[in-house]
Design goal:
NT_sf, GrpB/CoaE, GrpB family protein, globular, five-stranded mixed sheet, 5 strands
């Protein structure tokens, strides 16, 4: 059973992201358009589950499954769409997860949603801190209940996502 643990920000997370990005690029090659560090470990100072979330953007999502064997060779478990249409999801580390890879095709709206969320929290440390406190409390209350943990932060995350998308659009203009 997976234990939910929220820890203080680790300054090594960006390095761990870069290290894993190199491996992923070596597998997918020219199929990759860009790669983003997303999720809580990408927000400086934010408490987080110590799992590096990586979002590679690819030219053709249908080609991703052809790379499953190579992803398995570097420790990932392919999970298909795993609840989000148009995504390919992989995780590494079994019950002691270290990395999640969320692959989307260029132009998928989920890319903007994830990138906006990350950039917004990095630009708004007070909100990021509130989010970190909520996650820490939920991890204490629901240490072995990932569904309750996720449900507990759902409303807060949806509000941040909406604010983040509006903010992100304004930043682009």
């Amino acid at each position: 059973m997976r234990k939910i643990e929220v820890v203080p920000y680790n300054k090594d997370w960006p390095f761990l992201f870069q290290k894993e990005t190199s491996l992923i690029k070596s597998i997918f090659g020219h199929e990759i358009v860009e790669i983003y560090h997303i999720g809580s470990t990408s927000v400086v100072g934010l408490k987080a589950k110590p799992i590096i979330d990586i979002l590679p953007v690819v030219k053709d999502i249908d080609k991703v499954d052809d790379f499953n064997r190579k992803m398995i060779e570097i420790g990932y478990e392919p999970k298909g769409e795993n609840g989000i249409a148009g995504r390919r999801f992989f995780h590494k580390g079994g019950d002691n997860r270290t990395h999640h890879v969320h692959i989307f095709e260029k132009g998928d709206a989920n890319i903007k949603r994830h990138v906006a969320f990350t950039k917004f929290l990095n630009a708004h440390p007070v909100i990021a801190n509130q989010y970190g406190e909520l996650k820490e409390q939920l991890a204490k209350n629901f240490t072995y209940d990932p569904e309750a943990y996720s449900k507990g932060k759902d409303q807060f995350v949806k509000k941040i996502e909406l604010d983040a998308l509006n903010w992100f659009v304004n930043q682009l203009n």
